[in-house]
Amino acid sequence: SCGDSDASSGTDNGGSGDGAITMGFAQVGAESGWRTANTKSIQDTAKAEGVDLKFTDAQGKQENQIQAIRSYIQQKVDVIAFSPVVETGFDAVLQEAKAANIPVILTDRAVDADPSLYKTFLGSDFVVEGEKAGQWLVDNAADADANGDGTINVVQLEGTTGAAPAIDRAEGFADKIAADDSIEVTASQTGDFTRDGGKQVMESFLQSDDSIDVVFAHNDDMGLGAIEAIEAAGLEPGKDVKIITIDAVKDGMTALSEGKINYIVECNPLLGPQLMDLAQKVLDGEEVPARVLTEESAFTPEQAAEVLADRQY
Amino acid sequence: MTETTTRVQRVLRHPLLWPVLALVVLVLVNVVARPSFLDVRMQDGHLYGNVIDILRNSAPVMLVALGMTLVIATRGIDLSVGAIAAIAGAVACTRIVGAGDEAALTTAVMAVTYALVVCIVLGAWNGLLVSVLGIQPIIATLILMVAGRGISMAVTDGQITTVNNPFFSDLASGFVLTLPLAFLIALAVLAFTAVLTRRTALGMLIEAVGINPEASRLAGVRARTIIWTVYAFSGLCAGMAGLVIAANTNSVNANSLGLWIELDAILAVVIGGTSLAGGRFSLAGTFVGAIFIATLARTIPNIGIPSEINYLFKAIVVIAVCLLQSPRARAVFRVRRTPRPPAAGPAPTAEPAPATAGVRA
Amino acid sequence: MQTPPDVVATPEAAREPVIEMRDISITFGAVRALDGVSVRLFPGEVHALMGENGAGKSTLIKALTGVYSIDSGVITISGERHEFHSPAASQEAGISTVYQEVNLVPNLTVAENMLLGREPRRLGAINVREMNRRARRTLLHLGIDVDPRSVLDEHPIAVQQLVAIARAVDVEAKVLILDEPTSSLDADEVEKLFTVMRRLRDEGVAIVFVSHFLDQIYEIADRMTILRNGRLVEERLVSETSQLELVRLMIGRELEVLDRLDRAAPQTDAEEGTPLLTAVGLGRKNTLEATDLTLYEGEVVGIAGLLGSGRTELARLLFGADTADTGELTFRSERRKLRSPRHAIDRKIAFSSEDRKAEGVVGDLTVADNMLLALQASRGWLRPIPQATRTQLVDDYIQALDIRPADPQALMRNLSGGNQQKVLLARWLITQPEILILDEPTRGIDIGAKAQIQAKVAELAAQGMSVVFISAELEEVLRLSDRLVVMRDRRKIDERVNDDVSVRDVLETIAGEARAEEAPHD
Amino acid sequence: MSTATVSPASTWDRVRTFTPPGRYLPLIATLALFIGLFGVGGMRYDGLSDPQVLISLLIDNAFLIVLGVGMTFVILTGGIDLSVGSVVALSTMIAAKTLQMGWSPYLSIAAVLLTGTVLGLLMGLLIHYFDIQPFIATLAGLFLARGLTYLISVESISINDPTFTSLAFKTVYLGDYYVRWTAIIALATVAVAAFVLARTRFGRTVYAIGGNESSAMLMGLRVAFTKVGVYVISGFCAALAGLLFALYILSGNSLHAIGMELDAIAAVVIGGTLLTGGRGYVVGSLLGVLVLGIIKTLISFDGTLSSYWIRIITGVLLLAFVVVQRFATRRRS
Ligand SMILES: Nc1ncnc2c1ncn2[C@@H]1O[C@H](COP(=O)(O)OP(=O)(O)OP(=O)(O)O)[C@@H](O)[C@H]1O
Ligand SMILES: Nc1ncnc2c1ncn2[C@@H]1O[C@H](COP(=O)(O)OP(=O)(O)OP(=O)(O)O)[C@@H](O)[C@H]1O
Ligand SMILES: [Mg+2]
Ligand SMILES: [Mg+2]
Fold first, then answer.
1. How many structural domains is chain D composed of?
2. Which end of chain B is more exposed for a tag (fewer CB within 10 A), N or C?
3. Of A158, A196, A208, the CB nearest to B302
4. Beta-strand (E) ranges in D53-123?
5. Which CATH number characterizes residue D274's domain?
């Protein structure tokens, strides 16, 4: 549905020529299992393909990321890649990179800057992820009404307030469920993307409302926390309360295959191969699309059981 | 001056009055928003309800805050508790996962013991930096705050490690005598600490060191040993908190476990009436403070405050509680024409003893 | 007893007082610190506030200068009703005050401390050069030899006290208040201070002076107001009151201890006794040159010397408060290095510091805890003192030293200066030391209590304790000690058995030594 | 003790026997260590010895330097200000939002500075007049400022105003090297603060309060004014730092600057200022910021460390620095 690409990818580059590519990669941080898998994928692929990777962990701070990018420029790397901490505010440093003739590739998250400042953006679309989740709920509305009172009461476990995935996933989800009047988000609260947060918020929701039909969690971890809370309340997750999450990390997939989660929208962290490939293309002067979507799907319990064995993360 | 008036006066002057009052008000707010808030019922052989959740969820902050109370009493501060908690969780979980029989009781016991020993060592390390090398507590513990997260990530290799051990899980979710085990653990540590400090002379010596280190040294108090012990104890408490948090979700996320718990703990300590300037401390106050923090956390989803207003709400509550607690503020707000209370003169003098110590030592 | 001031007919009654305080009352919780006290201050007069420890002198002063707000009463200044709400306000109105505890900031230089808040400025910026020059001039004027650029906490408490005085007298003030300024000064310094006070008095300044040295009061004061237990006893002219009468007014009864005082302490021939501690070549860079000293069982060794002569440093080395660079200590027959006070306490040595605020008082603890601190520390935390023993010990010493308020649960910081000193003394007596080192133990102690303490020291020595007694008051040292050590310029210059040594003798020894080394360096 | 003052020594004698006063020792030690760190890094990684790296350090940390300045005032009085990170975020948000609404950039700047200052004032009043511990009052400030940021907008807003962007990119060339205006503003702030602390009554009162607050009060100093004043200054500096940060990243975002207060406090303390108050210099805080910055730079030049090693190494470098600094300054007596 997405990936309306095709803005031409600008000029060529200084290039390295001597074979080994030096890539500077500024990661957001290591805030989740998803992110570590992402980092690992990039580091492993770089090693396998002989790319000299300069890696920095910005620990969630944009200023650290900017400083890291600036140091890559000073070190004259061949290509810079980074997952922006936030969408805005990278114009200045991207301009410096451009002036130094170093191509930039964005991964995972987009930036809100002049598209000519970077070559391409590789990553998933958070809004689409939310939409997929919402669509599934609309499609399965009949089953979802666990207590059969005619309305489907959804509680939402949001990600970190202000974070792009949280905002976009909520937006996509809301868009889709608007189609069905019986579906209503009755409570929504941040669980900070963590299991502990998800559990505590869910506990409270369960105490104050006994007509919850569906939980929509912005990531697997909060969903897993919610499962624990639901079990502690003496209910059966996946049956008494339906659960939809996003990410498809291994623990989530396991729960899904056990029927504790009902639906997971995948958000693939294994960007390494695609990134290295793009980098090579960019350095070779090939055209690359301005927007490269990661290959992602969504899983039901049955599908999860099938793919679980060879999930890498 | 009848018997009753003096008793009322005594209650009014009791240091715990205001924290308790704040807690009561907060609970009332919740009850008004949702009348079923205080309902407790039996379920699966244990109690179930908001109150029970609050007690259980208060355990980690309470544990950390107990250690923090003693550290603060010696004029210190421990920023590394969150990182130590993460290390404890990481060590225990990787041990359990790596053990032969993942679900065995001995596995859980060994893992927990191992993790706690590590935490004591880390706490002692903080104590070493503060008491022997004389590095300022905030910086000494900042080092472990930064590096500790890295260590815990190194232990788990950055992955969220999930464990399947019912005994470990019981640390957070288990019930004993229908009450949450986590809360009982915190209560036990509270009792232990109270006995340790108030039944022996330790509490008084800690306070003396916190109020006037140089005078205490000259009176023969082993300030170094005391400071060292207190940090090690704080490490131990943080470790227990980390285990409870990890057990709560049967997993450890090295990056987020115990993040910012130091602020919550310090807040709990201060709400409980212990001054950050060191000296006199109140464990009972810390207990109330921790319950307060947990209740506050529950209040937000309970009365349905939107995520983007969470902080604003917290700010207002914190300011309100502190104003309630400050005698000066109460005096200002009280509609009486009496001039300033005499205490408005020289504030309790935190003497310049450290400076003197610096020159003389 | 409660004589209203108006009844006291004085020839000056016609004169207008600069400050009049009427029926001032202040309560702290349950303690009535001041109860309807009235005081008048006349220009060009030194007015002494007299009273025992805890009588309310310092509180009265703080009520005047706006540190405490009064519960009831009226303050008039130059005929107008007025109440200050902060020390800053009183200062602006021309009241310059030296409070009882040295209230300066330790981290700034001497010059800054003297001129804080009124630094000379040029183009809006503080003129440091001018500031130092002004400070140096004032110090020189007072005969204080201190580098104005040095940081305050490098100096012993006595020097700090002088700096505080210098700060106060440096301003053009209508009223100068000195709360026990002389408590750790030696005779020389006191004389210099009096010279300045006289000059200011002659210029028409009203001076309030608090001191527990009756001699000083009789030397400098014109009028006095006597307080007892927070109440006004009487206003008197000094010239019309005998010392004995004054003491009776202050204490409210005849003071029999005073007589005992003159019966000098029993002289023991201690040299015969067992040496408890022998120091050979004890010294520390920049603070004390190598010194030999032997302490025998059952004797009082007085250490005499002028301000900064190294007495405190010697005491600190004997106690391990500072570590010695050179020298050896032998306890009975065991040769040991003292690495911390703790070591010394384990060897039954006790040391009461001259700087009670920084090195003695643990303000936020109760009187009881303060008293028991050293004993508890030496027992270790695992062995708390049993409740019964605690109560017993504390009550005994509160009574023996007449500590007021006699409430073991009172907070230490709320005690008057003199009472704090008594608690600290009790702290060490409770440990039952073999060697007791007292550095200015009578600092700020009232005359009755001083006599008590001196008697106590003599008694302890008689029981076999070895006491090192340091005091700025030479008479006191001479009266008590069996043996006398004289120090000058950070070294021992003389040691002799105290057989009727007089103050003159000691001063001559010190001066003679000075003459002897007139020519050489320094 | 009766000897008169020492006769004035000859100039040569004074030069010959010159030893820096003890109180400057921490500063000197910090500087020496910083240079050492930079030197070692320069030998290990090429490109790092480039003076531009040093200048970039100033550019990249301009906002932190300004924060450190404000924090120094507060810490010198024995207080602490936890709110600064949130105030930075709030400032970026106010700037971004007002510009988006079409305000004049100058009005927007004024609004930011005013907000920060007022927040500082409120915290100062709470602390002094209501006797609330600085840690708690400013923690409430932290929540409040962050809360206000969320209230303005949860999503990030970019800044496209031409005045802002031109200010952000304005550079001054010094030969081959360039420096941004933001860095110059930061250095100017340090200079002004150093002057205020050393040479004004306000500044000396700040030290006096840190030395002993009740003494300062009894000495008749303007304790209330000064104590509230330092929080006002800190609030103002946080707002100014927020502006610099907004220029640095040209956006407003509610997730900016989380935990930045710890960086600021760490910088101040590493710079030799005592947390108990009364001792320290703003120049030390500048050095502290540079030390933190050079540690980060060293790590990104290395580039081979994984996420967790980065944290561990940061901790170890910090430790090494603090311990060496401690020993260097302890030697004096
Ligand atoms: N802040 C306070 N809180 C409670 N009690 C106080 C406080 N300040 C003083 N007091 C009490 O008031 C009484 C008078 O104390 P004050 O300091 O005025 O005595 P003083 O005459 O100066 O004695 P000294 O000669 O020992 O200095 C004492 O009993 C003291 O304990
Ligand atoms: N901590 C210190 N650092 C540097 N010099 C010191 C220190 N303490 C004392 N001195 C110096 O050592 C000398 C001896 O001081 P000490 O306090 O022992 O004198 P004292 O004879 O006890 O005089 P006082 O009457 O002031 O108590 C003084 O010149 C003093 O300035
Ligand atoms: Mg007094
Ligand atoms: Mg002395």
1. 1
2. N
3. A208
4. none
5. 1.10.3470
Domain assignment of residue D6, yes or no: no
Contact C104 D1 (CB under 8 A): no
Ligand 1 contact, C26 CB (< 6 A): no
Task: Judge A/B contact: 3 or more CB pairs < 8 A.
Answer: yes
Helices A126-139 and A164-177 cross at an angle (nearest 10°) of: 30
Which tokens belong to D2? Answer: 């009766």
Report d(CA B221, CA C378) in Å as an integer: 7
Q: Which residues does residue B46 pair with via DSSP β-bridges, in sequence order?
A: B43
Domain range for residue D150? Answer: 22-332
Residue D8 lies in a domain: no
Mutate to test the pocket of ligand 1, among C25, C27, C31 (most ligand atoms within 8 A of CB): C31
**Does residue D318 belong to the interface with chain A, where contact is any CB pair within 8 Å?**
no
Do the domain assignments include residue D299?
Answer: yes
Q: How far is D165 from chain B (nearest CA, A)?
A: 29
- Is D7 within 8 Å of chain C by CB? no
| Under 8 Å between Cβ of D157 and A88 | yes
Predicted pLDDT at C137: 93
State the CATH class of domain C255-348+434-517: alpha beta
Q: pTM of this prediction?
A: 0.89
Structure confidence at residue D20 (pLDDT): 65
What distance in Å separates the CA atoms of residue A251 and residue C85, rounded to the nearest whole number? Answer: 67
**Which member of B318, B347, B354 has the closest CB to residue D140?**
B318
Q: Is C183 in the pocket of ligand 2 (CB under 6 A)?
A: no
Condensed to tens digits (0 to 9), the pLDDT of residues A63-97 reads 889 888 988 888 889 999 999 888 888 888 898 89
Give B12: exposed, middle or buried? Use CB within 10 Å, 0-12, 13-18, 19+.
exposed
Q: What is the pLDDT of residues A208-244, one digit of tens each?
A: 888 899 999 999 999 999 999 999 989 999 999 999 9
Domains C1-94+213-252 and C255-348+434-517 agree in fold: yes
Q: Give the fold, CATH level 3, of C1-94+213-252.
A: Rossmann fold (3.40.50)
Is A258 at the interface with chain B, CB within 8 A? Answer: no
D29 alpha carbon – ligand 2 mean position (Å): 28
Q: CB neighbours (10 Å) of residue A189?
A: 24
The residue that leads in pLDDT, C516 or B117, is B117
Domains of chain B in start order, with CATH, are 14-332 (1.10.3470)
Q: Angle CA(B222)–CA(B228)–CA(B234) in degrees, nearest 5? A: 135
Half-sphere exposure of C207 (CA within 13 A, CB side): 29
